[in-house]
Specification:
With about 260 residues, the chain is of the alpha/beta class. It contains 6 helices and 12 strands. The strands form 2 sheets. It has a 7-stranded mixed sheet with strand order 3-2-1-4-5-12-11, with helices on both faces. The chain starts with 20 loop residues before the first helix and ends with a strand.
Length: about 260
């Protein structure tokens, strides 16, 4: 089941995407590099990088998101030899090739609810990293300590996250903090998109999310426990110190 099918048509209108494109562009090893993007979605990052590397391959579980990405690639005349996307499980795939850079932008790692899926992700990363290659994973830096989040997360109140003009009206996106797994620190927000014209709701789409919390030391330990060596770590996309900024961004390679 594609849990993002309803909301896919509105996904690109989010004005709050991080300004991370220059960051990923600077990570490219060179014009001849091959890149793998896990959780490529509608192609926000993939399309930006496609003109700067030899080939980029994207995988995403959402058929609706991948369809939008393919349409964008066709509209821009980008051939399969340069950029290719497919529907697939980022925790269980085998492409039979390796890449110089593997990325999973905008907190894709946190969408993995089960421990065996996290294990599968790291196995796939190892299988597809070239000997000299690196991988970059990202998570948000939790806004409070675990006990505070456990106590305050759940709420029936809708919170407006953003609003943009759309056609003859506006599109709003709200969040509902539906539930939390207190033991594993997994948040389950629901995003609600509403298209409104003259105060009438013309369309509504909902998207259920899974957001697993990782604190700075936890994310480091997770990566190192899988047999990788951390190369760089940042607290965001503008050289914030790791653990001090809004994001947790770690670059790593396989330990020799």
């Amino acid at each position: 089941m594609d849990t993002r099918s309803q909301a896919a048509r509105y996904y690109d209108l989010n004005p709050n995407f991080p300004n991370d494109l220059p960051f990923y562009e600077q990570l490219l090893p060179g014009k001849k590099s091959r890149v793998l993007e896990l959780g490529c979605g509608t192609g926000r990052v993939l399309i930006s990088l496609s003109s700067l590397c030899e080939h980029i391959h994207g995988i995403d579980l959402s058929e609706a998101m991948v369809s939008i990405c393919r349409n964008k690639l066709r509209a821009r005349g980008i051939p399969d030899s340069t950029a290719r996307v497919e529907v697939g499980d980022i925790t269980a795939f085998a492409l039979g090739t390796q890449f110089d850079l593997v990325i999973a932008p905008f907190r894709v790692l946190q969408n993995l609810e089960r421990d065996d899926h996290v294990d599968g992700l790291f196995q796939c990363i190892r299988r597809h990293l070239a000997p000299h290659g690196t991988c970059v994973l990202n998570a948000f830096n939790p806004y409070a300590d675990a006990e505070t989040i456990r106590r305050t997360w759940v709420s029936d109140e809708e919170k407006i996250e953003w609003e943009v003009p759309f056609a003859d009206g506006k599109l709003t996106c709200s969040s509902v903090r539906a539930r939390i797994d207190r033991d594993r620190m997994i948040l389950y927000p629901e995003m609600v998109y509403r298209l409104q014209e003259t105060n009438l709701v013309k369309d509504e789409a909902r998207m259920q999310l899974v957001m697993r919390c990782y604190y700075p030391d936890q994310l480091r330990s997770l990566i190192e426990s899988r047999g990788f060596t951390i190369v760089n770590a940042w607290g965001g996309y503008h050289n914030e110190p790791y653990g001090k900024g809004p994001e947790l961004v770690i670059q790593f390679r396989e330990t020799p």
